Request: fold
Amino acid sequence: MATFTSSLPDDLLKKLSAAAKNLSVPKNKLIEQALSLYLDHLKRAEYIKSFQKASQDQDLLSMAEEGMASYLKQVEDHEAR
Reply:
């Protein structure tokens, strides 16, 4: 594990200390958990943005519709057996 040193504004450090005390966890573990959650949040936001962008792409929508039509045909053929 690598060591990282940083500065925090006084008010944020006070909040961190209080939260760590209330949760009975070391400040570094609280920072680690918070950063991990935040980075996961950023990744989810990136996925959402890419899906929203894809939803506006007419070529992509056409391919998806064609794929769904093909899938529906396969399901219907399978149920007809």
In short: The first helix runs from residue 10 to 23. DSSP finds three helices and no strands in the chain. The mean pLDDT is 90.
